[in-house]
Amino acid sequence: MCFSFDTPYILYVYVLLGVAFVLTLVCSITLWRRANRLRKFARHEAAREYLSDEQLPSVSVVVYAHNECENLERFLPLLLHQDYPDFDVVVVDDASVDGTRDLLSDMLPHFSNMRVTFAPDATRSLSRKKLALTIGIKASQKEVVLTTNANCRVMSDQWLRAMMRNFVPGVDVVLGFSHYRYRKDTSAGRYYRVFDSIITSLQWVGSAIKGKPYRGISDNLAYRRKVFFDHNGFSRNLDLKFGDDDVFVSEIATGANTRMVLTADSQVQTYYDNVPKAHHLLKLRRDYTTKFVSTHMPFYAQAFFSCANYLRLGALAAAVVLDYQNGFTLSLTAFLMLLSWLLMILPFNRCCQLMQAPGLTFSVPLFYFVRPFITLYYNILGVITAKTNLTSIYD
Questions:
Q1: Strands 144-149 and 59-65, how do they pair?
Q2: d(CA 78, CA 268)
Q3: Burial class, 291, CB count within 10 angstroms (exposed 0-12 / middle 13-18 / buried 19+)
Q4: 259: closest CA among 224, 219, 209?
Q5: Eight-class DSSP state of 2
Q6: 3 Cβ partners below 8 Å, 6+ apart?
Q7: β-bridge pairing 221-224 and 144-149
Q8: Is-above-0.85 flag for pTM?
Q9: Could you give the 3-state DSSP secondary structure of residue 114?
Q10: What mean pLDDT is predicted for residues 17-36?
């Protein structure tokens, strides 16, 4: 090995390394802009206009439950003891067979602000989740509806205040944030699931921040009850089993009537017995409904980043192949690799901090590399399993 500035392929090496450097800057700027947008939003959120305590709207928390007896036993007390002036909790039992009905019957006499309703046991050609939510929203009597699920936990008794204070005049939809309980996931692939969840969240949260909301999370999603009925509920996408938190949000949410909320008190944790299985199913469902949302720019932006990243790596690899015996080329290539890794890790971990997720280190660049291939796998699997996303008379 030698250190030389005058080898037969040095001109090509300079060009390749120059291209790699430019693409490193492009990728880094993309990631840092995303992180800075989130950081600026956090500052803006703390300073923006909110309703006073006297102006807070009444709210019905609609809780979807299907065989979630143990989770309901832990979650309902947290909801029913929220520090909020005017609210009730409507639990919709979707044909549970695990003791949920007995639990709810036992709790009802002790809480005057709790009501229970049921989805019919036998239905055809309907989404069970959308049917249950519709029943719960019809049973609600308050100005605002806030949907959540029985396997959730609120982090504070100020949750309702943190969400409802955003319903200033002109705001009809408030998108709350939810994430699964990261510590619960101890299975293989847990770090990638954290990474993938954060990237997915950055896409829809970033789009909402820029005034183009297209998705929420049904664990923590609020809208005015009137808006639901003005849009005839879920009638426009009844053929889809899912979509109550993305397709529906795309229909009712605009940059003018929607607020995104990320404060710690407003966030919700979701508990899954099997995190890998839940992550797998959610990816399949949301990948399918993505085709129906109002904007696809976040997905194009992510694809652009992936292409730039692959081109960067290709340029570095080609430079090494052409001049692998030159220590100067190898040193410069190693420097650019290290630089690009740092410029990927730092902004990603900044986003993790704002979203209350565990930070990742040297796995981040690797995950950026493999994620498009995993996404392709899910796209292919989604085509194969497409019919499972549609309602059927045989359900």
A1: parallel
A2: 12
A3: exposed
A4: 209
A5: B
A6: 326, 327, 328, 331
A7: antiparallel
A8: yes
A9: strand
A10: 95
